[in-house]
Amino acid sequence: MLRNYLTVAFRNLVRNKLFTGLNILGLATGLACSMFIFLWVQDEVSYDRFNTNADKIYRITAKLSDVQAAVTPPPLSAAIEAEIPAIKNATRIIPLHKMITAGTKKFDERNIYYAVNAMLGQHPGMGDYTITDHLPTYLTTGAPLHWPGMDPQKQVIASRLRTDENFIKTFGMQLIAGRFFSDDFKADDSSYVVNETALKAMGMTTANAIGKKITLNDREGPIIGIVKDFNFKPIQQPIEPLVIRNNFAGGYLVMRTSSHNIRRIVEQIKDIFGSIYAGYPFSYGFVMRKRWIRPFNTHH
User: Fold this and answer.
1) What's the whole-model pTM score?
2) Which residues are within 8 A (CB) of 298 and not within 5 positions of it... i.e. 6 or more apart?
3) CA distance 226 to 243
4) pLDDT band at 111; cut points 50, 70, 90
5) Closest CA to 143 of 218, 225, 53
């Protein structure tokens, strides 16, 4: 019976060649289109699925006038990572960058931190300056601190601060062991400096802490220095554990200079800011106007 059906079907196909050709062409086209649609859908639903954290990764967009675009200001990634504890990591992908000229030196926008330092260094009388993601006045960001041999039942939340190598000099902090960050050590990007309170919380001493590995926000790195405790919150509050990391993303530019130089210095900084961040508003303030701050140095 089946053989008879196949024979009749074949004879009909041969007898109606045009009809047969149109049907076969339509079937082939339909199958091809279906395959392309399947491959496209598969590609869309598998986008970035190679990453085990794909369901936790988000892209930030901005509305520029009437246009929605996947672009953000350069400092945003560092700011949201520092300000929002729930964000573990933030990064810039394919940033728009330009060449910056500082005297005879040229810098890519990706190395804008070095451009700022170079331009500031060309102005006499600037005094000491540092770039930090937060002012050490009222830190609100913190993360769990871990170290080898830690009691699993214990939890230590450490405040976080990102600074450059000029921080302790600018604010008059005291380094009691090890060293602070330096451009001479490229590995400092993954190193930490802690305060005395953090050291006590981990059961370490200044004699054995240097070189020990700690983990903050899933980032492991060695302790390279220890700073004497200082108030980074209102002085009525007890000093808490603090972990400082090398700053390579920017933030606040903080300066210490003589009071009679203020007007001239502000104008110079404004010019430098405008040459690097053209189109961004410039603003400044005085740290000592914060009522909760204890003076770091009464001579400045």
Assistant:
1) 0.57
2) none
3) 9
4) low
5) 218
